[in-house]
Amino acid sequence: MQAALTLVTLLSLYKLGTIQAAPVSSGAVDLTDPQILREDIDDLRWEMENGYQRLLWSSRTRSDNMQTELATLDNTVRTLQGRISDLEDWRAQTETLMKNVNQELREQILEAHGKIYTLNNHANLLDDVVLQHHPESNIDLGYPTGKRNAPHDPAAP
């Protein structure tokens, strides 16, 4: 391609009269010889056609490569969008599960507090029965002052 551009430049300069053909005896090419000019023009045409074909092939190859890359990127984006959607679904399910678990735990804790309250009341009733029949056992029951604490009501503030 560079040779073709150089030839076109030389021919243009020759036609403008800026350069002159050197005598053939000096070893230079005679630019006035029609056969040499035809060969140079043919070479120039071949270079231009070949350059055009290479450029066309190169642009097609680049276009094909870009389309392949775009398809790959499109598939990657779709895959990531699917994963994001899956993660959002998983997060929503996890939040729902945690709310349910928290609610169940609250209910179980309240139930356990109720059982403790009931057991504490039963223990106090048993203490009362023991103290009524054996007042001397007050210290053995763990009440050094002879007075028991009131049972704790979990519903009380």
Automatic annotation (TrEMBL):
Keyword annotations of the record: Signal
UniProt region (Disordered), positions on chain: 137-157
Signal peptide: 1-21
Superkingdom of the organism of origin: Eukaryota
Protein's UniProt name: Uncharacterized protein
